[in-house]
From TrEMBL:
Coiled coil: none annotated. It comes from Nonomuraea mangrovi. Residues 27-229 form the FAD-binding domain. PANTHER family: MONOOXYGENASE, PUTATIVE (AFU_ORTHOLOGUE AFUA_6G14510)-RELATED. This is FAD-dependent monooxygenase. The keyword Zinc-finger does not apply. InterPro entries: FAD-bd, FAD-dep_Monooxygenase_BioMet, FAD/NAD-bd_sf. The keyword Zinc-finger does not apply. Keywords: Monooxygenase, Oxidoreductase. Gene3D superfamilies: FAD/NAD(P)-binding domain. One of its GO terms (molecular function) is monooxygenase activity. Pfam families: FAD_binding_3.
Length: 271
């Protein structure tokens, strides 16, 4: 099921009492005892959850000696095209670049483009149109109908594996714990699973045992998905002609079952 990120954020925000949110507060440092230093001073809590993304201050505070995000060598553009007929969800591979499109429930089409590039290189919509002009339809049509202001470009990062997701009274979750390549579309999904698991564990076991249970439960699963996601994208970014020719000849011969089996662990989960 495809859900627009803004719609998901609205749903989550509506479920939280407004007085529980303090927007615009910049967290600067987090201590394992639950003290959070921020732009408004310092606060202490029995449980602190660092869900502050791939450049997490929480993670850096707790494990300052561990390396930060690693650029994986390809950048990603995302855009929403106006409603138009497309044949379901399709990803098309080239040499070191690919284009994917996914219909959304309201008829608009979510599109993504991934391409090998040096970090921090900026490419606009006109250049993307030019680059994909000779790809099969509906790719040129989708790019042609998009608007520049609807295009997001982000470099793709992965975080090195953490030995634990918990330190003292603090847990990290989502990208702060396990930022992954977007190849399986699982980063936000795993963040949601983390949150549900952590809330359930702390509710039933208390903070200390709940945090231990959260780490035990979530680390193996999320780190497996980080690896699977990395592997799932690798062949799309090959650039050597012999390798891509071999890839394009062999992939269509593999049974669909093989792909389904490798994806099943990511898409099946119960608490
Ligand atoms: C190109 C691309 C495509 C993707 N596609 C998918 C997909 O199809 N499906 C999917 O499930 N996932 C996808 N993802 C992954 C997904 O975006 C992330 O995994 C998800 O957003 C992680 O959620 P999070 O809450 O952990 O972190 P974030 O969404 O990064 O949220 C972190 C929050 O913390 C705040 N913050 C950060 N630092 C501080 C600070 N110091 N003080 C206060 N606040 C702070 C930020 O402002 C932000 O609001 C994609 C990612 C990329 C880059």
């Amino acid at each position: 099921m495809t859900v627009h990120r803004a719609a998901l954020v609205d749903l989550l925000r509506a479920a939280v009492p407004p007085e529980a949110l303090r927007p615009g507060i910049d967290v600067q440092h987090v201590q394992p005892d639950g003290t959070v230093h921020h732009g408004g001073g310092a606060s202490t809590a029995d449980l602190v959850v660092g869900a502050d993304g791939v450049h997490s201050v929480t993670r850096r505070s707790l494990w300052p000696h561990l390396p930060g995000p690693r650029y994986v060598g390809y950048t990603t553009w995302r855009l929403i095209a106006p409603p138009q007929p497309v044949e379901g969800s399709v990803e098309t591979w080239g040499r070191g670049e690919r284009f994917g499109h996914v219909p959304m429930p309201d008829g608009r089409i979510y599109c993504y483009v991934m391409a090998n590039a040096p970090a921090d290189s900026h490419v606009g919509l006109d250049e993307l149109r030019e680059r994909f002009a000779r790809w099969r339809q509906p790719i040129p049509a989708l790019l042609g109908s998009a608007h520049e202001e609807a295009v997001l470009q982000h470099d793709t990062h992965e975080l090195p594996m953490l030995p634990t997701y918990v330190s003292g009274n603090v847990a990290v979750l989502g990208d702060a714990a396990h930022a992954m390549t977007p190849n399986l579309g699982q980063g936000a999904c795993q963040a949601l699973e983390d949150a549900v698991t952590l809330a359930h564990a702390v509710d039933t076991l208390g903070v200390c045992a709940g945090l231990e249970a959260y780490d035990r439960d979530r680390r193996p699963r999320t780190q497996l998905i980080v690896r699977r996601s990395r592997q799932a994208g690798a062949a799309a970014h090959w650039i050597s002609t012999p390798m891509t020719t071999l890839r394009d000849a062999v992939l269509p011969l593999l049974p669909n079952m093989l792909f389904a089996r490798s994806l099943t662990p990511a898409y099946t989960w119960t608490i």
